[in-house]
UniProtKB/TrEMBL annotation, chain B:
Signal peptide segment: none
Pfam families, sorted: DUF485
Organism, scientific name: Pseudomonas fluvialis
Protein name: Uncharacterized membrane protein (DUF485 family)
Domain of life: Bacteria
Protein keywords: Membrane, Transmembrane, Transmembrane helix
Gene Ontology CC: one annotated term: plasma membrane
Record keyword Coiled coil present: no
Record bears the keyword Membrane: yes
Chain segments annotated as transmembrane: 25-45, 65-83
Amino acid sequence: MIARLLTTLGLMAVAPALWAAGALEGDVQRQPLNISAILMFVAFVGATLYITYWASKRNTSAADYYTAGGSITGFQNGLAIAGDYMSAASFLGISALVFTSGYDGLIYSIGFLVGWPVILFLIAERLRNLGKFTFADVASYRLKQKEIRTLSACGSLVVVAFYLIAQMVGAGKLIELLFGLNYHVAVILVGILMVCYVLFGGMLATTWVQIIKAVLLLSGASFMALMVMKHVNFDFATLFSEAIKVHPKGEAIMSPGGLVKDPISAISLGLALMFGTAGLPHILMRFFTVSDAKEARKSVFYATGFIGYFYILTFIIGFGAILLVSTNPMFKDGAGALLGGNNMAAIHLANAVGGSLFLGFISAVAFATILAVVSGLTLAGASAVSHDLYASVFKKGKANDKDELRVSKITTVCLGVLAIGLGILFEKQNIAFMVGLAFSIAASCNFPVLFLSMYWKKLTTRGALIGGSLGLLTAVTLMILGPTVWVQVLGNAQAVFPYEYPALFSMAIAFAGIWFFSITDTSASAAEERARFLPQFVRSQTGLGASGAVAH
Amino acid sequence: MNDPIYERIQANPRFQELVAKRERFAWLLSIIMLGLYLAFIILIAFEPQLLGTRINPDSPTTWGIPLGVGLILSAFVLTGIYVKRANGEFDALNKSILEEVQQ
């Protein structure tokens, strides 16, 4: 019985791997140069660069740069958060999964959604009430600035680095696939554009790029789903029965199937996803772009709605691809496989329902999606360096706005160069594990420290520092010793650590470490830190003293 | 940090009422969400054929479809319920507490 449950849990968590890797893994066939896609992409870049120019004239203070002056509304922020979550790989990967296995695709997407309501109920408003620019503001609120900010900045930078590598390599491959552009050209182009958005436009431009992309992606996906439904006269029964007729698995696509991996790894990855989302610096930073807790709550409400709607669309799109793509010899090679692989299902469907112009549109949207996500990541990384390391640790809170912003901009350029370099370096590497690793680290270092700093009075600097570091180290070490890096990347025969994802173990170690080293901390400063919990608690509940919107 | 005002708020019975109510509500909704998700997983683990059963023998739609889509909708509805109460009742209470202690 238990084994069966574990197996199912395993099944639930395979999706992340798909989501992480999705279309972006393995060898891709370079496609012929796609002119209409390139033209539409150029239009997108033009529009977003204009927004960046507009935003750059409004960015005067650090608050403008980091959080768009708190001027984003709940609705806009909800779109931006949804944009961060709806990556190109999730669009192509989940629709491909529905295309190959039917119902399993729906099960997978549900796993991604259920973390959001919990973030709303337990984290969003306290975070907004306590923080200013970065989540380290909250984690270090009543603890020692230097230690906790250094830890949080390290956690953020490691997460950002792994996530960036995965996105850059994915971007290069996807662009090669969709546009027929050279890999290196694609990576350099993505790097330069992302630096432009962040450097000149800050959070305001980054947010608007994300919003535009989310609207384009949602409209494109809605149009595809609509055309699919029109094809079956808006009758789901017809959609399903036609799909059953032509799908090789027949009736099985209407019930849970069986892509099953090792259950412990799968549970571990499931945990990483759920709590990792609540520890991703670029997602957490979005909660500071709204004016108060009220708007922060609304953002999660809208985000959950958009993400849920998007998953329902991908389900219809996957079934539409079964009907319209798998039956059309135009989209298949000699052996009957889909051109460019199963991850191209949604792209081919775009061609089938909207012709080459709409195909170009969807390809351009997929590229825009990657750009928007890497910009958010870069901004989060730059803030960790300038706001946490430079202003709070190095200058002990005495840095002026101007210097802090300068450091942030220098860091942005460095991150851009680094991202391009790593993107090229990792071109031939298996990068599928990197997003999983980023989530595992976020769940094992950032999340426990952040969560306990808001909920547990007895937390002390010593506990947070030792426990958080243990979580970070365990996550990285177990990942290196596990099958993905030790065997697949380093080429050893047998993995030292048998499971693919470490979060189950590294989270347990982080929480246990924080607990043990906090309760045994009897120093005077620990007593002061516990005493400061009261004002922190009152502020987290009432928002009294919280940083508000900056008037423009 | 202005300590006396924080202590006054902490001592205010209406603040304690707000905290107790909101915490209970937030945890309750979290448990409902996770419970629904867990129930869905358990159903797939132990009764996968149930989700694959047709609702109506004449139509190919299986029970899994409304349950799966229902779960997505429930996530949206639960966040909606929380936001409505938190932005209405709780924020009003919060505002009146702040006004009371700041006089």
